[in-house]
Amino acid sequence: MEGKKICVTGAGGYIASWLVKLLLSKGYKINGTVRDPDNEKNDHLKKFDMASENLQLFKADVLNYGELFEAIQGCEGVFHVASPVPGFKLVPNPEALLSAEHQNGAILLILHNHQCQKGSLGDPVEVSPCDLEVTALSHGSSSLLQKCKTDMITPALTGTLNVLKACSEVGIKRVLLVSSSVTILRNSSWPKDRVMDESCWSEEHLLRETKHWYGLSKTLAERAAWEYSKKTGLNLVTVCPSMVYGPLLQSTVNATSLMLLDIIKGTSEPMVDKLWHFVDVRDVADALLLVYETAEASGRYICAAHPSYLHEIITKLKSIYPNYKYQQNFTEFGPEYRLSSEKLKTLGWKARPLEETLVDSVEFFRQAGLLEEVAA
Ligand SMILES: NC(=O)c1ccc[n+]([C@@H]2O[C@H](COP(=O)([O-])OP(=O)(O)OC[C@H]3O[C@@H](n4cnc5c(N)ncnc54)[C@H](OP(=O)(O)O)[C@@H]3O)[C@@H](O)[C@H]2O)c1
Fold this sequence. Notes:
The protein has 376 residues and is α/β, with parallel strands linked by helices. It contains 15 helices and twelve strands. The protein has helices spanning 14-25, 43-46, 51-54, 65-72, 94-104, 132-138, 141-170, 182-185, 204-209, 213-232, 255-265, 281-293, 310-320, 342-345, 354-367, and strands at 5-8, 29-34, 55-59, 77-80, 174-178, 236-241, 243-245, 271-272, 275-280, 299-303, 306-309, 330-331. The longest helix has 30 residues, at 141-170. The protein starts with a strand and ends in a 9-residue tail after the last helix. Mean pLDDT is 85; it is low at 89-140. Bound molecules: NADP nicotinamide-adenine-dinucleotide phosphate. NADP nicotinamide-adenine-dinucleotide phosphate binds at residues 10, 12-16, 34-35, 61-63, 81-85, 155, 159, 178, 180, 218, 241, 243-244, 254-256. Keywords: Oxidoreductase.
């Protein structure tokens, strides 16, 4: 694959940055799309080894077909990574919060709770953090919720179809779509005692009913991608990572890393002590390249490594770093499913130990000044 040109969408994001770094180290030439090439948050990309020779940044919003086409033209393959990723917090109904925050004149920052149930705080709902402050000031609450849906679902779904259409037009050999395990995990008819594999799909009605807009955005996007590939013959593979942790390459902190920071620092809001499947961001980048490069790879690939409850993660972290506050307030979650990455492992994928991911994450946060120790 030495010297082959590929496009990576959303190149400056958390997972995409590790992917770009890996691809450069393997000799690929990259057209990376970012929404603002001049924004300093993308500067880290320019500092990667071989970036000055082999990385070209293109300004492209996934909702702008022409911009995408420019970046994809001349490439052999595409990694479509860009998609809005919200935060994860248990909050009361944001409509109630909205008016309370308005009265206080405070900045409104609500991040959604991921797949949580009705709890003592009321009915938690998901909202996108995008432009929330501005939205809160200028919109009514129902339009706020509408905007949240639009901000997440449209870029995921329309963005994916734009990418695929450009790929067809250009004659791209293979497209790898970064999907998510959330497109698998919400299925009410899957047998409770059976490990979930790639044949399982989240049910759209369930995602709608639970206002899981992120899950819905990813599920609609991946489903549409498969339909498009079936119709046109475009060579598509998808990878569905679970919860991704590990050190960051970019200067801004992404949503899942913010959640880990919250776990370590502790927050006053309860967190759902559900079974997460953690996977290291560097192992995700490896998986993406492996699936892309393996000619016989086909279909979907779950990329999930370590099933663990949050309280287990905290126990592990505390044994290594006793001097943080840690989250103490939890709510419970219903029956949990386990995910299998056997299909990915048959291609040769291996995941590093969870301890290594946790230690590297904490060391990164410490060096970045994002953690304050408390007296033991
Ligand atoms: N982190 C996880 O645990 C996890 C797990 C499973 C799947 N995933 C998937 O992995 C991918 C990357 O996520 P991440 O964790 O690396 O999050 P991230 O750092 O927030 O990256 C998301 C990227 O999407 C870009 N983006 C969002 N809306 C866009 C638009 N309209 N046009 C162009 N670019 C847009 C963002 O660009 P800007 O910088 O311009 O905002 C950013 O580069 C996503 O598809 C996500 O669903 C993540």
